[in-house]
Records
---
Amino acid sequence: MFNHVVFFVLIISLILFIPYYISAEQSEKSDKSENAEEKVAALINGKKILLSTLEKEMQAAIASNPQLQTNADEATKKMIKEQILNSLVEQELLIQAGKNAGFTPETSEIDAELANMKAKFPSEDIYQQILKQEKLTEKELKNQIEERLIAGEFVEKEIRPKAKSVTDEEVSKFYEENKEKFVEPEKVKASHILVKVEPNADEKQKADAKKKIEDILKKVKKGEDFAELAKENSDCDSAEKGGDLGYFAQGQMLGPFSKAAFNLEPGKISDIVETQYGYHIIKVADKKAERKVEFDEVKEKIKKYLTEKEVMNAMDNWFKSAKEKADISIMLEGK
């Protein structure tokens, strides 16, 4: 099925909802307090991008990709570091351009962004812990939010309007040339009851879990309400919804679970199915056959996707021009 690109602004990334980008002024202040001389990775019109910022972004990129954690050789790491530095340079160019254009967010906008960010945390204490961990004050965080909003406004007002408009003919052509992407696979709507078995469970615990699921299955076969049994017995989060998992396609569930579900007809109930999570009983409510998604259903998504591609092209052109005009010094070893 077609997945359109969601684009906002290629600017300060958020890790745990706290930006890793730290302005030179903030970092220099920390450095002086620690009597440490901070190394600089790049200068953009006199503004520093610190090596510590780059390295932190690098660590976050590797941590978020298990394959990089095990298979990244030095050449790959070097390439990733260069890409991240280029992204930081481009972020800084956007911020500087926005400031030069006189864009200034309202205090209410900054406060609203901060409130949304804080709402992501379970508690104020955890939010404060993360700030401390990242060596940020709330004032510094608000400064970062302000810069992000400035860069975003610059993109929306100065770059997006320069993007090439997408025609109806281009939208139709994209659909015709990519019809294989516009197919919804077969789906089933199912509920289940799970009796969980921990990975380190001993034989007795496994036997107890098996006995419990067998007793539940007997009740199901006697005609007791499946949803109520799920609410009372299932160890899955779906229990509160009577075990309802909604619609899912092949491959979205674990192999044995998916195979059992797709082999059932609507209204039918499986025998006990074992997966790495434990023992399941599955009830299928509905099936949807594979179908072609019609043009009218996706034309707006296609147009949005193509439009954002054109905005990205406009950004690439802007970055190329901005880099030619800017005073940029890259100080990484090997550059």
---
Amino acid sequence: MILEESLKNAPIVRKGEYNYVIHPITDGIPYISPELLEEVVDRMLRIADMEGIDRIVTAEAMGIPIASLMSVNTGIPFTIIRKREYGLEGELSVQQITGYSSAKLYINGIEPDSSIIFVDDVLSTGGTLIAIAQALRQTGAHLREVLIAVDKSENRNAIEPVVGVAIKALCRIKAHPDRVEILESMGI
């Protein structure tokens, strides 16, 4: 359980009223070890239903290492929802609102009727995930499942119905000002 042990020792900084956990999987700081990344992806694949999935989708930036290794391990291609606009035909713009920032994300290359699994590093307020789920529906794709490495949300029961699919997290945490508390672990 490299993930949980490393979270217990992660530094926490305040961003307004928000306790921000700085961790290799969620921030790339100080670095992402191959062992940690392999554990996260192996555990995600144990709890995922990959049957019939056409595409792995993630948001820039910290979901990219997870989606990359998952794609290599499954042979399923992945798409990155980017922070940069390209102006391609069919490009969708998504307003990302997190607990500490707001930005636009851009979706390209999602085929109608494709079956998608969305993977990401962390779930906090749910703002990004909700916006992405709604935008993916606009493409005509079918979001089948959401896999998250670290769930630090306090309102997951309210987020899941809006997203419309199960949110599976490897671990659920509470970020206190001085420590990280592991509330639940999954996929071990």
---
Amino acid sequence: MKHATRIADLGCEVVEEILAAAKSWKRQPHRKHLEGKVLGLVFFNPSLRTRASFEAVMARGGGSAIMIEAGSESWKLEHRVGAVMNGECAEHLREAVPVLSRYVDALGVRSFSTDGNDEEDCRDALMRAFRKYATVPTLNLESAREHPCQGLADLMTIEEQFGATRCLPVLLTWAPHIKPLPKAVPNSFLLTAAMRGCEIRIAHPPGFELHREIIGEAHAYAEAAGGSISFFCEQERALQDVCVVYAKAWGPSTSRERVNDADSPHADWMLSARQMAGAAKDAIFLHCLPVRRNVEVADEVLDGEWSRVVDEAENRFHVQRALLHWLLN
């Protein structure tokens, strides 16, 4: 049985297959390749693009989706082994997931980081529990560790613009925010870009390092694909002549206490036209959305000729169609 809870579940060959199918099928938005299929969507956190795109995929593909908002429209769910359930959680995944598996053909799960602990986020306990108890393919809709669908959409957008990605210089740059955010999106951009052989630059202030396990996995992919990874603590130096600028806020490596952007010592990391001028002439700008305008990124960048954020969001639909086709066949 296939799962797609981490980009490692796919591997380089399947990633290439999915991206090729997504680009080919983009001209056929109503391709009926999911007729009779039912996708269960379990959301522990809010969503706009993920929910809408997966429901659209199933509707246009001839299938259907069942949406469950855990804790609001259903029972609160416990995932810990051996938990004494005398609190708010009325049901354990040990029963809930096998039951849901009997109603649907695949299960998609969205659950963010809960406490901002990098070690716990890397273990990805809730996503692993769904995968363990499910009797149908399980799909990551963003977890504490990764957001594989976003990473695939990012690379599809880059390949549509530039074609081959081997040795293409791309920058993942940290952005300021009003609160510390999880690292699933930057993790997935890094891992997927490494699989595609990009020359990856990662820029962030000291203390905002990504987890060593993610970095190690990305290095292995980059080496196999002919790419590279380098690190910068100065944003402007990292921006020089890059073709892709991906901005994303994420929390520090240790403390995740709330940080007001007005008081942040790194507010100057907000991406503006001045910084983008250092990139290549044909550079594009990406962000997973939602984005806090004039905190993470200036209006002039989001509304400027560099921006591909809407194309990137549309491509979520196309890569998810291809991914579900692979999972269910």
